[in-house]
């Protein structure tokens, strides 16, 4: 076991708004980290950068290593492949495609990875069943509850067996019981599959359950 994410001196500005002001963060394999902080502190911006969806403003002292890979040295094509293989995302609003069934939505990242259809569907069914959704496999998002939709989004994040899952307000849109179930699920998945979770949340209970709770204030992690 060692660090799965090493980020040093991460800066990000949007025109003249300096959002991240030198974030240092090291995350160990299989850790569950929560990130809390006021609205506008830069949590989503940081998560998007750690998740390789966005790029930091590189300075001499900036470092971003994920799963032993220097992110700034990857071509766009390699970066997309790296992301799809190593990283899963769960957002506040599930972002499932409305025209597709639960099974189809979950299979999409596997298809992007060129996994054969039969194999992708087999694995998607296993995960959906594991998440208690075996009766919902052929349902489209609008015929599922919020908690069910969010579990489909979790299944989609898991399909390629990524090492790291980033979640941005994953339970922000759920009632307290569905939120509680989702939070338990993260810990169950970590027990079983040793994944690393980085979770941005306003939910104090979830934040406190994590191995480490980091607080962002004005573009920096408070120590
Ligand atoms: N694409 C963008 N262009 C310009 N400004 C942006 C952009 N994305 C974020 N910002 C600004 O950067 C700051 C930090 O935003 P960010 O979304 O990271 O905050 P946050 O901590 O996630 O807040 P919340 O808890 O409300 O989600 C905010 O002032 C926001 O308006
Ligand atoms: Mg945010």
UniProtKB/TrEMBL annotation:
Keyword Translocase: yes
InterPro entries xrefs: AAA+_ATPase (IPR003593), ABC_transporter-like_ATP-bd (IPR003439), ABC_transporter-like_CS (IPR017871), MacB-like_ATP-bd (IPR017911), P-loop_NTPase (IPR027417)
GO cellular component: membrane protein complex
Keywords noted in UniProt: ATP-binding, Lipoprotein, Nucleotide-binding, Translocase, Transport
Pfam families hit by this protein: ABC_tran
Domain of life: Bacteria
Record-level Gene Ontology MF annotations: ATP binding; ATP hydrolysis activity; transmembrane transporter activity
UniProt record similarity statement: Belongs to the ABC transporter superfamily. Macrolide exporter (TC 3.A.1.122) family.
Name of protein: Lipoprotein-releasing system ATP-binding protein
């Amino acid at each position: 076991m060692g660090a799965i994410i090493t980020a040093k001196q991460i800066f990000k500005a949007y025109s003249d708004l300096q959002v991240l002001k030198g974030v240092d963060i090291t995350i160990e394999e299989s850790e569950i980290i929560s990130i809390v902080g006021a609205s506008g502190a830069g949590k989503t911006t940081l998560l998007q950068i750690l998740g390789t969806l966005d790029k930091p403003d590189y300075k001499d002292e900036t470092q971003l290593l994920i799963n032993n890979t220097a992110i700034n040295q990857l071509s766009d094509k390699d970066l997309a492949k790296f992301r799809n293989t190593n990283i899963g995302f769960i957002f506040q609003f599930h972002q499932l495609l409305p025209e597709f069934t639960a099974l189809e939505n979950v299979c999409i990242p596997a298809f992007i990875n060129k996994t054969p259809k039969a194999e992708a569907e087999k694995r998607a069914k296993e995960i959906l069943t594991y998440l208690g959704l075996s009766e919902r496999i052929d349902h489209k998002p609008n015929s599922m509850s919020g908690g069910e939709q969010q579990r489909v989004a979790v299944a989609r994040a898991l399909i390629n067996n990524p090492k790291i899952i980033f979640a941005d307000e994953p339970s922000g849109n759920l009632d307290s019981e569905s939120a509680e179930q989702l939070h338990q699920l993260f810990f169950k998945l970590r027990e079983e599959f040793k994944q690393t979770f980085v979770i941005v949340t306003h939910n104090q209970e979830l934040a406190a359950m994590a191995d480490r709770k980091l607080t962002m204030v004005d573009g920096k992690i408070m120590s």
